[in-house]
Amino acid sequence: MADAPKINPKETLRESYPKLNQAIDNANEAITKATTADENASQAVTTANSVQEQFNQVVIEGDSSVEAAQARVSYTGTTYTTLKERLDQEHESVTTQLADIALKTDFGVVDGVGDGETSDSAYIQQVVNNAGYNQKIYLPKPPVAYVITTPIILRQGQTLEFAVNTKVYDRTDDYAFKIEGGPTFAVEAKTHVTICNAEIIGNPNSKGAIYARNVYLINFEKCKIHSYSNLAACGVWLEDFFQINFYSTQVNNIENGKGLYINAVTGNSGQVNLYNSIIQRSRIGLHVEGTGNVIDGVNMFGGAIGNNHEVGLKIGKNVHNFTAFGSHIENHDGITFAGTTAVDMFLDDGLVCEGVTFIACLFENNKYAIKSNNSRRVTLIGNQFKGNGIEGAVAITQGDGDGAWFISPNMFDGYETEIIEKGINHTVLRNLNVDYSGALFPQRSSAGIYSGDQYPEGKVTAKQGSIYLRTNGGFGYHVYIKNSGDGNTGWQNLNGQIPVYTNANRPGANTVPRGTVIFNSDDNMPNYSDGATWRDALGNIT
After folding, report:
1. Is 515 strand, coil or helix?
2. Beta-strand relationship, 379-381 and 295-301
3. What separation in angstroms does the CA of 429 have from each of 378, 379, 448?
4. Peptide bond into 186 cis (omega under 30)
5. Integer CA distances (angstroms), 350 to 85, 373, 425, in order
6. Into how many domains does the chain fold?
7. Measured between alpha carbons, how far is 181 from 194 in angstroms, rounded to an integer?
8. Together in a domain, 143 and 247
9. Among 73, 180, 291, 314, which residue carries the largest CB count within 10 Å?
10. What is this structure's pTM?
11. Are residue 225 and residue 326 in the same domain, yes or no?
């Protein structure tokens, strides 16, 4: 392929076309060679794959074919095409695991660390800092316990995982662990932090185990917090937050303070979830309020609040949508523990909480299960209130400021008073009962509303004051009221239209209540039953 000469700008088209033809010929020749090269490359790949496959087959069918075939099956039962394929894949998996183990064991067991006496704060903080952001830090089981004398400050995205049942002695005069964002909520929030498996044990000078402010996406998993006796102590303090989860966590014995304190100060906060977690033996078990803003969404799934020295659950102002599903709130009897109130929602005028719901919860052995005022949109469905015969016990005490409560049928047992009703716009269905026949009992076992296709006198047993709706019968015979007795007699027709009969088809006077009036179309006058015979207006037998 010869080089095509360049065209001179002064040449005419007649002089230039041989050069153009040469350039076109060269281009066509280049395309042909490129196509040939591509075909050769494809053939080389095919050949290489064939060689690899043949080599694999040689390995499989070699002298040790039985052993090789067995080795291609992993311990999980997975069969690989070749032994090399299995080795490559498992090498990659083991490498990943080793990298994770290397990260998790970064702390290590060091002489003097975790002896239960010497402060480990500086060393733990150094490991936290060296791990950096978005890292998982594993602290192995210490010989006795880790000792913290200054707060451990956790960083963005860190998971601090202790070996199971690791004790941490909090000997600070502050909180043992702090998770704090910047001053602006929620732009400068600290996020994605987790603490696992720690048993944090307080002392009389400590403020609490965990302090979290301006945070979201925070998890506490299988932690146990206890033995803080400081008058201002809070086992866990949450302030300005979103999406905080407690999984199987226990807060216990904050005897002069609060087990878990949740507050919204500068920002609209919410979505705290407690899964199978327990708060007990504190002055106030769980305290939720918004001193400066709204808390929207605190949920309990199972778990318990109990045995507290003052109040189990305290719901303050600006709390919207607190819900407990299947939780136990118990043992505030004023005897075993000084606390007498399971749930305190009593707010002064001008302060409001709303959207409080308890579903399928057990309130047991509380002198006062729920005390309320200025609580709106409260829902109680399918709960059990067991007062256990405590003297003066009241299950539910409403206040004048309460409004729009919905109380479905709940189980009340062992209370001197079930509900002290106050407030406005409530729907109370607690005494409602509908039996298998469709009878409605607005007052439970007392007067009811019945329905059927028969004349009720002598056939329908009911309490005095009951109503019977008849689905058949003549005009004017559809509504009856039970004027007397608890048996099947005493029913009186309530229709304003006097029923019309002839002498032949009128009912027996002894089969209708005394005083029943009919119109006799044969005589064109009213007839009156004296309980035995029919009489006219002058008392004559007709």
Report:
1. coil
2. unpaired
3. 14, 11, 14
4. yes
5. 72, 11, 19
6. 2
7. 15
8. yes
9. 314
10. 0.69
11. no
